[in-house]
């Protein structure tokens, strides 16, 4: 009779003790993994449970940016597109390329490359000079006060655009 009762239980779909135990243990492990980031020190980041510190960490208000700038005949400065400044579309890679050129003594060569790209771009016909500079900004004032002037400017290289 016990044999018949066991077979009846299997046919009605009630899970075995082994399956119940597996589901309970597996569910507990998933719960522990999902809540583990709550018990880590603040600022610690780990795959696959990221706290996204690049978005949640406090950032400095004063920031320095090395970039290439086009200057027209009236002296107005306009930051050059990354593709013109470095031959690369990525903004951060362009900044790294310019910083590396400045740090390694290749600022003149980089400036001359930029001049060639400026000459090839009809939209930049007004550019008379190319500058590679590191400008320091108060990022809050930059966006709130409608003031785009840097707090500090360090000119690394200036190249004339032959027109």
Biggest sheet, open or closed, and with what strands and sense?
A: 4 strands, antiparallel
Which descriptor suits the 3D outline?
A: elongated
Strand content: 15-25%
Radius of gyration: 30 Å
Account of the protein in words:
The protein has 163 residues and is α+β, with helices and mostly antiparallel strands. It folds into two domains: 53 residues, no CATH class; 99 residues, no CATH class. It is 44% helix and 21% strand. It contains seven helices and four strands. Strands 2-1-3-4 form a four-stranded antiparallel sheet. A hairpin with a 4-residue loop joins strand 1 and strand 2. The chain is elongated. The chain starts with a helix and ends with a strand. The model has no long low-confidence stretch (mean pLDDT 88).
């Amino acid at each position: 009779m016990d044999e018949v009762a066991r077979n009846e239980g299997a046919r009605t779909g009630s899970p075995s003790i082994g399956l119940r135990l597996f589901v309970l243990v597996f569910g507990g492990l998933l719960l522990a993994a999902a809540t583990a980031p709550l018990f880590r020190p603040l600022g610690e980041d780990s795959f696959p449970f990221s706290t996204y510190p690049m978005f949640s960490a406090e950032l400095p208000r004063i920031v320095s940016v090395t970039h290439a700038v086009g200057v027209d005949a009236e002296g107005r400065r306009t930051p050059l597109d990354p593709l013109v400044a470095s031959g690369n579309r990525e903004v951060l890679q362009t900044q790294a390329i310019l910083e590396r050129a400045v740090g390694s003594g290749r600022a003149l060569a980089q400036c001359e490359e930029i001049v060639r790209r400026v000459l090839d771009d009809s939209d930049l016909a007004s550019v008379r000079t190319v500058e590679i500079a590191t400008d320091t900004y108060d990022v809050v004032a930059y966006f709130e006060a409608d003031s785009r002037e840097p707090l500090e400017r360090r000119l690394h290289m200036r190249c004339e655009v032959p027109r």
